[in-house]
Amino acid sequence: MKLKNFTVEEYRDLKAQGLNDKDIAKKKDVTAPTLRLWKDKNLTDAPKKAKKVAEVNTLTQTKESPQNELESVVKSQKRELEVREKAIEDLKAKLEGSITKEELDKLRNGWDEELAKEQEKTLHEKVKRAEAEREYQRTQTLLINVDAELENTRDQLYQTREEVVKNGQELELLRGLVRVYLPV
User: Fold this and answer.
1) Which of 71, 65, 68, 83 is nearest to 10 (CA)?
2) How far apart are CA 131 and CA 180, in angstroms?
């Protein structure tokens, strides 16, 4: 298990730095469910362990014990404060390095006018392209419909031509019969 040497104190320090469980899991190269299992095992037992330690300390208390306990709490609080201050400084450094003063001024002023004009121009071009695409699709659909109508008309013309040829043949047969039965 990759969290074998991971301590409760280390976990709390990372939390004090502002990291969430997902970030901590990523930093420790484990999955979030693995970290959750570690927390269930270690953080739920921590109060029990602390209670046992407190009981042992109570049994072995001396007159200096409250002073030692107070010093321990102060030391722990100082350390937590140092960790948080370091995390704040790290975040400030990260923020300062990620954006220039000019960019910050532009953000503070609301927006960059040139950028807005460029975006507006790009948007108009996209709209024109979309309209042209719709017109192309509409024209394409019309062409397909006209082509289908033309094909239907060709089929009808072909059928009509066949009927005319057939009717012409029948007419010639009838003329032949008329000549045979009705001599002129």
Assistant:
1) 83
2) 73
Predicted model pTM: 0.32
Select from 4, 20, 7, 6 the least CA-distant residue to 87: 20
CA distance 58 to 72: 15
Q: Give the count of alpha carbons within 13 A of 39, CB side only.
A: 15
At position 44, the amino acid (one-letter code) is: T
Other C-beta atoms closer than 10 Å to the C-beta of 116 total 11
CA–CA separation, 83 and 77 (whole Å): 10
pLDDT in tens, 59-109: 555 445 677 878 888 888 888 888 888 888 877 777 766 767 677 666 666
φ/ψ region of 18 (left if φ > 0, alpha if ψ in -120 to 50, else beta) reads left
- For 125, the enclosing helix (H) or strand (E) is helix 113-181
d(CA 27, CA 16): 15
CA geometry: angle at 8 spanning 74 and 53, to 5°? 65
Nearest CA-CA partner of 64 in 55, 56, 72: 72
- Token readout for 151 is 């094909």
